[in-house]
Each structure stands twice: as C-alpha cells, then as structure tokens.
Amino acid sequence: MIDFDVIVVGGGPAGTMAAHAAASGGAKTLILEKDRDIGYPVRCGEAVSDQGLRQFVEPQPEWIAATITKIRMRSPNNTAIDFESKMAGYVLHRRIFDYALANRASQAGAEIQTRAYVDGLVIENDTVKGVKYQYMGENRTLSAKLVIAADGVESRVGRMAGLRTATKLYDMESAYQATVGNIDIDQEMIDFYIGENWAPGGYLWVFPKGNRMANIGLGVVGTKAKDYNSHDLIHNFIKTYYPKATMLTSVCGGVPVAQTLKHITANGIMLTGDAARMVNPVSGGGIISGMHAGKIAGEVSIEALKTGDYSTNGLEAYPRRWRKAGGKNHEALHRISDSIKDITDDQLNKIAAKLEKVPQKDRSLLKIFTTVATQKPKILLDVTRAFTGF
Amino acid sequence: MAGIKFEIMTSGSCENQFRYLKGLIMILVKDNRCDFCGTCVAVCPVDAIELREADIAILDNCIDCDICVWVCPIEVLYSDKEEEVKHD
Ligand SMILES: Cc1cc2nc3c(=O)[nH]c(=O)nc-3n(C[C@H](O)[C@H](O)[C@H](O)COP(=O)(O)OP(=O)(O)OC[C@H]3O[C@@H](n4cnc5c(N)ncnc54)[C@H](O)[C@@H]3O)c2cc1C
Ligand code: SF4
Ligand code: SF4
Which residues are within 8 A (CB) of B71 and not within 5 positions of it... i.e. 6 or more apart? Predict the structure, then answer.
C-alpha cells in the first residue's frame, strides 16, 4: 500500500497551492512542514500585486495589512521619484495569508503535519518513492507516488533527488528585515531605495503594514555580504531616517535571485517555488510565482496519477507549462537583473535628476523612456516595469 | 549519509566539542545567534548544512569553502581558520 498519492514538502505558498490543486483533483495529499507553525516566522516583505493574487484567490480583508496605490523609487542621493501605480497591490499579513492558503488546501482534502522535518527520500530504481522525516525526534517514512518539493530557499529535497539546487553567491540576496511600529509613512506607498550606498547589489524597501507599522528590509548580494552586513545596514538606516521607530520583529532571510533551475523535475519529484528558484530576479518577489508554479505542479500531479507515469518524461508538462506561464518572463527578468549590475550610483543619480523634472502625471513608461534615453533607457524601463507592474 | 554526523547545537558545550574536533570541521556556529533562515543552506555547494526548526548542524562533508560564512546576514558562522572573528 502506498501511503499517499502526493507528498508536498514545505507549507509555504508554493506548497499549499500545489497541495490544494492535487487534493482538489482527488489525490490523497499530505503536506509536511518542519516549523511548528504554517506561515511563521515571516521572512518576507509581504508585497504582492492585486492582479497577481487575484489569479488564484480572492483577496480577503484579513490578509491585507495595507493597500498600495503609489510607488516611490529613490536614487542613491535620495532623490525620490513617485509613480502612481496603475494597479493596486497589497502588503499582506503572511502569517494569516499562509495559514489561509493551508486551510484552503486542507478543506480540499489535504492533510498537514507540522514539526515534520524531511531529511531524506526513499529512492528505488532511480525514482523517488517517498520521504523520510523526523517528527518530534522520531524517524518516520512514508511512501508516495509523487513528491513535490516546495521547501523554499534551502531546497535540500531536490538535492536528495540528485538535482543541483545550490545557488551561487552572486545569485543570492542576503537579507534582513525589521517590522517596526511608531512610524509615520504614507500607508499607501511602497518605497524602494536603490543603489550601492543603501544596499550593495540589492535594494532597501520600506513597505507599510498598516496602523503606523512598516516592514523595513534590505538585501545585499551574496558576494558583497561579507563586507556589508545587512543587519547593521538596516539598523543604521532606521536610526538615521526613522529614529522613533520601534522594533516589533526582526528576521533574516535569503532571496534566491537566480535563474530557475535547469531541471525542476526528476523521476517521481517536482520542485516548485523558491526551491526551484522562481523568484522575480529584479524585484525579489516570489509569492505569486511560487503560487503559480505550485498550482501547475499540483495539476500535473493529477494528470500523472491518471497515466501512472511519474518519470521525468511523464512530468514533462510541468516545466513546459511553467515556462509558458511564468518561466519566459522570468528568463527575461534575469537578463535585466544581469545588466543592471553595471549601473553605477552616479548614473542612477543622473537618471533620477532627469525624471524629477517630469511631472508625476506624465511619468508614463513612454515618458520615462524618452527622458532617460541618453542614459541606460532600456534597462531603467525594464526595471521600472519589473517593480511597478505597469 | 555516510560517515559520522557531527552536530553543532546552538549551545556552548557543543561548540567547545567542535573546537576539540577541529580539523574535521572548521565552520563554527556562534552561540544563540542563528535565526534559522536557511540562506547558508541554499548556497552550500555540497549540502553540508542541516537546519531544523531551531537547530543548525554542519555535517562532516563540509569542504570548508566559507561560502556560508560570507552569505549569513547576521554573521553567525565563522571559520576557525580565521584567527580574527568579526564581532558586532
Ligand atoms: C527578506 C525577504 C523579503 C521578501 N519580500 C518579498 C515580497 O515583498 N514579495 C514577494 O512576493 N516575495 C518576497 N520574498 C520572497 C518570498 O518570501 C518567497 O519567494 C516565498 O515565500 C516563496 O514561497 P515558497 O512556498 O516557495 O517557500 P517558503 O515560503 O519559504 O516555504 C517553504 C517552507 O518549507 C519548509 N521546509 C524547508 N525545508 C523543509 C524540510 N526539509 N522539511 C519540511 N519542511 C521544510 C520551510 O519551513 C517553509 O515553511 C522575500 C523573501 C525574503 C527572504
Ligand atoms: S564551508 Fe562551504 S561546504 Fe562547509 S558548510 Fe559552509 S558552504 Fe558548506
Ligand atoms: S544564514 Fe546565518 S542565520 Fe541563516 S540559518 Fe545560516 S547561520 Fe543561521
């Protein structure tokens, strides 16, 4: 007897979307999550676009900490350029949001076990046939027809199946975020600080969290993380710009801004979300792409259960559909993120100085394009689009 | 996993054990400092870091490349090759 049709490792948005799709299609599904809580600790700025979210779920008021209508980008010398966002976005309460997604999966029939750390796979004939895990110090094994690895940035489960998931230092953002209280900011605006002096090889963000709170974080590219400590940079920033702010939570985390793995399947297993490296490499956003890919993986698992072919071949629809849905865009964004690495603080300041003279209502993409045409127009255009979703 | 698995819990005594065992593993964990975020796990080229809900272990297949030391956002890891350990 095989214990489960589908075992999903990781209870983040990618995992719970995959489990929801699998369970809705009638698969006997289990989610194994190592932490005590689904959705906690929150290692995330929690910003999503309305359009992105709505593809999968109707946004619920209890998930939403702040509704975003404006975007501000700051140059290294702190020139602020504001954009009206054409479409709204949200800063979520991921604690509540992740919980709701897990609950949604369980209502579709998926089982969930927390405190379950997957530390091995059952592999027979070069095919994944189940998982080994520790539950409160006890070793357990479960068999499954398919395993979906949604184990986030760590992505060890894929490695256990022989896939190469290790991310290069230059493709990893070493991040730190504080959720602060007692802060007076525009609660409808997300604020990005771009340039080496704020966050070497990354950016700094201030995202409103409602009720005079905010997520303030930054990422430093892995290759520079030895010399720039994101913890110290954030604390100095807050002390300088928001001295009255109080620390409510502080977490660190890694954002894999790498290209999606070349192989996201092996016999009996699919990788999804951060584990497959699906984060937007320019903005660092990975909630929506993880949900999207997780959903596709769950749907493909249903089809594989029908054919009984769990080999890489049998799962070929997953990488194919993902590429069409989000993978192509991801590849383009990765090329952009590569080219922005060359833009200097000086160039960014010059671009900002020009843009500042354009009235805000005229800051359409075309206008930005013509205004900065002498600088690095294409790149800036792409970056703006990646952040604002215009 | 072949070989003996050495674990560094985030308590002092285990770390001392490690100093004793140095030569086998050179990456050390500063006591009570890890946030269990997984960034180091993601970049380790040989999958030598095991991270549970609230403990971190460097496994004995570590090749001492220091990549994890570099990437940690809060400087939890250090190499005993380095005489000088960064302090906050
Ligand atoms: C500081 C920071 C800020 C960010 N800000 C944003 C943002 O504003 N907007 C945005 O869209 N994205 C943001 N991201 C990225 C976003 O958080 C991730 O892309 C998203 O959480 C990915 O979802 P996931 O389901 O793939 O992985 P996760 O949400 O990381 O879930 C993976 C789960 O797997 C569990 N797990 C891992 N290993 C095992 C194991 N061996 N056994 C059992 N369970 C395991 C983990 O405990 C975890 O719960 C940010 C990331 C960071 C670090
Ligand atoms: S030193 Fe290198 S091999 Fe050893 S744990 Fe760190 S990243 Fe892995
Ligand atoms: S990167 Fe640092 S804080 Fe994060 S798990 Fe590794 S040692 Fe701990």
Answer: A169, A172, A174, A222, A225, A254, B39, B40, B43
What is the pLDDT, as a whole number, of residue B82?
A: 58
Rounded to an integer, what is the distance from CA B77 to the centroid of its chain? 5
Check CB contact under 8 Å for A252 and B73: yes
Q: How far is A160 from chain B (nearest CA, A)?
A: 9
Percent of chain B, pLDDT > 90? 43
Question: At CA A112, angle to CA A141 and CA A290, rounded to 5?
Answer: 105
Question: A175-227: per-residue pLDDT in tens?
Answer: 999 999 999 999 999 999 998 999 999 999 999 999 999 999 999 999 999 99
Chain A environment of B42 (Cβ under 8 Å): 153-155, 165-167, 172, 254, 256
Tell me the CATH number for domain B2-87: 3.30.70.20
Three-state secondary structure of A126-142: CEEEEEEEEECCEEEEE
User: Which residues, judged by CB distance below 6 Å to any ligand atom, belong to the binding site of ligand 1?
Assistant: A 9-15, 32-35, 43-48, 116-118, 150-154, 156-157, 175, 177, 217, 253-255, 273-275, 279, 284-287, 290
A172–B39: do the CB atoms touch at under 8 Å?
A: yes
Instruction: State the ipTM, two decimals.
Output: 0.92
Q: Residue count of chain B, please give it.
A: 88
Domains located in chain A, CATH noted: 4-43+95-167+258-315 (3.50.50.60), 69-84+169-256 (3.30.9.10), 337-388 (no CATH)
Cα dihedral A231/A232/A238/A241 (nearest 10): -140
Per DSSP, what are the bridge partners of residue A147?
A7, A269
Q: Is the dihedral of CA A338, A72, A182, A210 positive or negative?
A: negative
Ligand nearest to the CA of A152: 1
Q: Do A254 and B38 touch (CB under 8 A)?
A: yes
